[in-house]
Amino acid sequence: MAKHIQDKTVLANGVAMPWLGLGVWKAQVGEEVENAVKAALKTGYRSIDTAAVYKNEEGVGNALAEAEVPREELFITTKVWNDDQGYETTLKAFEESRRKLGLEYIDLYLIHWPVKGKYKETWKAMEKLYKEGLVRAIGVSNFHIHHLKDLISEAEIKPMVNQVEFHPYLTQQELLSFCKEEQIQMEAWSPLMQGEFVRVDLLKELAEKYGKTPAQIVLRWDLQHGVVTIPKSVKAHRIQENADLFDFELSREDMNCLDGLNRNHRFGPDPDNFDF
Q1: Tens of pLDDT along 16-29?
Q2: Is 112 known as a binding-site position?
Q3: Nearest CA among 18, 26, 101 for reference residue 64
Q4: Start and end of every NADP-dependent oxidoreductase domain (predicted)?
Q5: What local confidence, expressed as pLDDT, does residue 3 receive?
């Protein structure tokens, strides 16, 4: 179990991925995203998660270029957007992302959503990028079990990561079990329930019990489930607070209580029913 901010999980292909990262969804390009990335790196984060559709890859790239962190210590994730899915268009989109980030290679490249009739062709392009050494690991985002089974049935290389909405109101136990069986590392986006965690009484009670904040309780819960987590913030003190997870452990009983909050509630779209 993660005991330090730079502790890593090992993906199916042997690549090490930090358990904790900074998500930059909605962080504006320019100073906002650059300062967030710099604050994260200063705090000790080494994993940054962006996407083409966030329109801030360039800002992430600028911050990385100015950071005095060796490239091999960094773990940078980006994603191919739905409009760019397909074989040739994915290869082109990847080059664009790589250029904006200013990197020779990307650590993890994900299919952002399972676009029907397109994700298999997209995956072929991802496999090509992986074989050429332009990406250290490839994976998917927002894939249900049936999407994963469908992809794996024809894939040469199995996805190494599945990044999904995961929090105490959406515990996705079946998906988590399936991913563990298939050696696919699950990763949580929106772990803090788009801010709604502040309304959950149990989190307030546990925060008091452990001398932590409700946000830290949720993020620790993620890690103890063996799920990589990438909380998003643009505020330096929050970025610091979100990293302060490694000096305590939730009891099995408290983990079970948090699991019991599940109501299969999504704050984001359902991967079986999205129109973008």
Answers
A1: 999 999 999 988 78
A2: yes
A3: 101
A4: 21-262
A5: 87
Q: For 153, what's the count of Cα atoms within 13 Å in the CB-facing half-sphere?
A: 7
pLDDT value, residue 87: 98
CB 202 within 8 A of CB 258: yes
Could you give the residue ranges of the DSSP H alpha helices within the chain? 31-43, 57-66, 87-101, 119-131, 145-154, 173-181, 201-210, 214-224, 236-243, 252-259
Q: Is 1 a residue whose pLDDT tops 80? A: no
Neighbours of 35 (CB within 10 A): 17
Cα–Cα distance for residue pair 212/206, rounded to 1 Å: 8
Contact 158, 143 (CB under 8 A): no
What is the domain partition of the chain in residue ranges?
8-259
Task: Report the catalytic residues.
Answer: 54
Average pLDDT over residues 41-68: 95
The pair of structure tokens assigned to 71 is: 């490239």
Helix axes 31-43, 236-243, angle to 10 degrees: 30
- Are 242 and 186 in contact by the 8 Å Cβ rule? The answer is no
- pLDDT tens digit string along 3-17? 899 999 999 999 999
Does residue 134 contact residue 94 with C-beta atoms inside 8 Å? yes
The pLDDT, as a whole number, for residue 118 is 97
| CATH T-level topology, domain 8-259 | TIM Barrel (3.20.20)
Please measure the distance between the N-terminal and C-terminal CA atoms of the chain and give it in whole angstroms: 37
* Best CA proximity match to 191, nearest among 223, 211, 210, 166: 166
> Would you say the pTM of this structure is higher than 0.85?
yes
For residues 52 and 93, is the Cβ–Cβ distance under 8 A? yes
**Residue 87 — left, alpha, or beta (φ > 0 → left; ψ -120 to 50 → alpha)?**
alpha
CA distance 148 to 158: 9
